[in-house]
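WARN retry 2 of 3 for item q-0093 after timeout on previous attempt; input resubmitted unchanged.
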Amino acid sequence: QVQLVASGGGLVQAGGSLRLSCASSGRTFSRYAMGWFRQAPGKERELVARMSVGGSTNYADSVKGRFTISRDNAKNTVYLQMNSLKPEDTAVYYCNTLPVLRSWGQGTQVTVSS
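OK item q-0093 returned
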């Protein structure tokens, strides 16, 4: 079973930056569009960034201009560079294929203090 392991989260002050990584154990990583999702306490999971197989990107309005998604197919890894972080970015962050095909995994906690 393919696993997606997210890492790179932590505690950061508002205005700070973090870079998240998500490594896939699958051998077909390059064939899928990938997305970064987040789930804050008491809220539904939401898609915040996506990257197509061809490299085009889309972002939720709430993160546009602050977050950047990228991928390294040779490493089966997708990244999320998060700048100018805000307390409302606090959530558990996950990656998955688009459409969602894999188990969610544990995600990585991002906590932004004010």
